[in-house]
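Query form — protein Epoxyqueuosine reductase

QUESTION: What is the three-dimensional structure of this chain?
INPUT:
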Amino acid sequence: MPRLKMARAMLEEAEVRRVAASLGIPIIGFTEATPLLEIKPHLEARQTTNGPTPFVGVPPDKRVDYRQAYGDAAAVIVIGLPYTLKMSPPKNTQGKGRLSAFCRGEDYHLRLSRKMEALMAALKVKHPQLDYRLFVDNGKLVDRGSAWRAGLGFYGKNNTLIHPQYGSGFFIGQILVSTPIAFVPAIPLKSLCGSCRRCLDACPHGALESGFSLDASRCISYLTQKKKLSEVEAQRVQYFVYGCDLCQLACPYNAHLPEECWEDGPMDAAWPELKALSKMDEATFDAVFTGSALHWRGCQTLVRNSKLLLKFLEKEC
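ANSWER: The structure tokens for Epoxyqueuosine reductase are given below.
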């Protein structure tokens, strides 16, 4: 590591890791704030093939440049919070839809932001000059790319980042800090997928193609979040009423993850009643889903998905 960098560094990796561990942050890594050029070709290729990345209004050259998001960025702290990916189905799934694991419980944006704010508050006690910006899946930066460069996992054929211990069941947040950090650079992990194609075969509509790519128009997760659907796209809303976990559940690197037991609960449970969702009004939607990761898309999208899924289930019977 360059001697000048060590001399300028005002934060130490060990200190940040120690504070993070005390706050219940089990996954953490570090990277320079230099442009993430390693993944730019991938972003450009995807844009050429499928058009702009869904829900992202920033071109690839800006997404890989940390200083476009925060001009004073000197280093990047990447954290991860595990979540329960696997959930056993109820005894009777008739008439029920399925919610993706990412939108069950409290909104992961809120969880990550709270943890990152707590981490920064603790560090600022000794480093009051420390300034920072938080980013959680908001389109300006490539969260998985930063986590990959920080050594937190490898890219799977299903485009998720796979951690050696937690599989792909973890949320990612980034903190761009104004103060340099003395850290040992991680070696980005190469894919360990090999010849496995379980995720490719698990996708009903072939959205993953041959791997490491995505045809968003065939991805159930994307389609259930998209506002307007073509007739063909509407027919592809299957199995999940919001999001989709099929490619992750098929991944052998997630096989060891614990399974949470399903219990009867309100409409934000893992398997909500589709007829109730299809008749939901705005007031009920806000009462049930405020504070969850699916609330941002609005009531009408969930109502539409419920009706489409009911049609699909009728055909399946």
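ADDITIONAL NOTE: The beta strands are 11-12, 27-32, 75-82, 86-87, 132-135, 154-155, 161-162, 170-177, 181-182, 259-260.
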